[in-house]
Amino acid sequence: MKYSLIADVYKKIEATTKRLEMIDYLVELLEHTSIEIIDKVIYLTQGKLHPNWMGLPEIGIAEKMAAKAVSLAIQISTEDIMENIKKTGDLGISTENLLKMNRLREPTTQLTVTKVYDTLDEVSKASGPGSSKRKIEKLATLIMDALPLEARYIIRTVTSQLRLGIGDMTLLDALAIAFTGSKENRGVLERTYNITSDLGNVAKTVAWKGIDGIKEAKVVVGKPVRMMLAQRLSTVEEIIGKLAGKCSAEYKLDGERFQLHKQDKRVNIYSRRLENITSMYPDVVQLAVSSIKAKEAIVEGEGVAIQADTGELKPFQELMQRRRKYRIKEMAEKIPVAVFLFDCLYVDGEDLTTKPYTIRRKKLEEIVEEKTRFLITPSKISRNPSEIRKFFDEAISKGCEGLIIKSTSLNSIYRAGARSWLWVKWKRSYQSKMIEPVDLTVVGAFMGRGKRAGTYGALLTTAYDKSNDVFRTVCKVGSGFTDNNLKNMLKMFNKHITTHKNARVDSILKADIWFKPAIVMEVIGDEITLSPVHSCAFNNIRKESGLAIRFPRFTGRWRTDKSPEDSTSVNEIIEMYRSQLKKTTK
Ligand code: ATP
Prior knowledge:
By secondary structure, the protein is an alpha+beta fold. Helices cover about 40% and strands about 20% of the residues. The protein is built from 20 helices and 21 strands. Among the domains are: about 230-430, 2-Layer Sandwich (D-amino Acid Aminotransferase, Chain A, domain 1), CATH 3.30.470.30; about 440-585, CATH 2.40.50.140. Strand 6 and strand 7 form a beta hairpin. Helix 5 crosses helix 6. The termini are far apart. Adenosine-5'-triphosphate (ATP) binds near residues 229, 252, 302 and 566.
């Protein structure tokens, strides 16, 4: 399969502002792809070479290094290329334009997808002395054989700036149409994706075996399961009502979610975003090896920073200092971590994701030998509001954020990848007048004036509408930024700038600058109000009106642990609006 086919489709996707058109182009691409390489086409379209959790080297070389490769291929100095980027704002476009005018030689071959993928894989894996030179040479050879449009996308891919902004759900829609003939089957594909977290593999399976083959997929150790998430409500009575009195309250710890995969003496740790974070937590690996009695297991819990001498729980920000590549041992001593386990997804050949909560919890207790820093999360089975309230106060006094109250009904399965009503969170901040912070994806910016001249005055932020795979605006955030935030913001957003609104963004407001949905920020506001200028839940509560956050402020927390699809959903904003109404009419 020629790489030019991919490049032509990317160009069309880049130009469209309509999501349905984006899907049509993807279907066209998938239908022209041979099954052997369909996984590679999927990864390339996502701007990567492998699923993130594999922890394999990814592409993502610096612009300067890529410019050196282009310089070698077209015999123009790196300085001149960097100068040209200042005009186009994009090394991809600069390379394309320059290649039309200058070439060291004519292409000797037509680039295939396999050739491009394999070369990028070799470039990403090259390491050690002299590896920079080898990377540049390999890339230069690829550029020499590329057509100008192909070069645009190769360069953007290697510098991690593909910016197509295609979401997983959009790819699943396209796969369902291309290989089962109907978008209706997305749900079936999604379930497999949720338990294997590998879109390339989902594509290969459905392309080979069709819809029946995809249904056979199983949870396996070593492939992270997309995590089950909780809904939110603000009173314990509402929660008990929602769970029909069949519930277990657990401490809600304030740390980082860990999914631990144990196979003999090997343990891998996956984050909320399914990155492989094993190397950052050697202490947790050791604890898991010595405390999990099963040969093979997948368990989940929260890793929390603790005070080394007293064992007291510390807030999330402390733990984030453990997220590093260097000085890992030193930080493990300075900021030790305790793990509080709360779920068990798989044990020695048995997939527990389809079993109810009580069975999973019992299994967890059976296979874990608790240690001071490797514990099972305290829980209380109760349907009595005052008893649960007391448990909530106890959790808060121990440094927790509140409770997660979980259904114990017969159908309380582990719903991979879903924000389900089987788990409901109840946090301390719900009790104050202010709404709880939300996590919003930034899709655009408005330029600043006066003191803010030269940087962004406000960011346009969105909630995620999963069923349509679209980001809908809820507010413009202009306050809460420190001088440092303002200084770093341009650089931070620069690589996500696009020439027009992304096809997955729904906005009534016209931003000065548009971004690919990529960065998630935590925002707090005073309340949720109706608004004719925001597209979140438009026409849902009232005709010609959406929902917006009033007086939004940045909390200072960039949610790098979340992907755009993990941001607060449109449905959650609707729920928050409704529960606010209930409170004020009481
Ligand atoms: P979310 O993960 O729901 O998108 P978030 O990262 O902002 O949102 P919260 O909304 O505060 O986190 O709560 C959910 C998170 O709470 C879980 O992802 C998990 O990391 C953490 N957590 C702490 N204790 C528990 C528990 N007992 N059961 C499940 N999750 C827990």
